Amino acid sequence: MSGLTKFSALSVASVAIVAALVLALALLGTGEERVTAASTPSLFDQEVVQGIYQRVSPAVVKIRADRKLGPNYSPLAVGSGFLIDSQGHVATNNHVIAGADRILLEFEAGFTLEAQVIGVSLANDLALLKVDPAVLENIRPAEFGDSSAVRPGQLAVAIGSPFG
What we know:
extended
């Protein structure tokens, strides 16, 4: 490459890369045969997932963790959790509430409650919160399934609002 300039060398390399891509597309194809057509049935029943959402979403809460700075509070983190029983217990991730001086739970029904931390598991990144259960009498807690009956390949649905 003694007679080539830097620009010429880059041009030759670019042409070689484009030629390799064209050759790869010619030999391997564009991959369109692996794209699922819109008319192909989906892997899950959308009505089932929508039904799960309608049933569970009232128990899902938006969590705002605040830090006290002087007389005011400043946002520390946001995340999701869900009501697990009729006694006002809410499960979430510990990293959402870690270091918070105040934890507010916003329910789909349009009200916000302050929560207390009942316990945390650092190893599992879990936290258990509690709110006044009297306000929750019309909200059905999320139902737990039997994890021993789950098989590989079964549909899993996650409902939450991790970014608020």
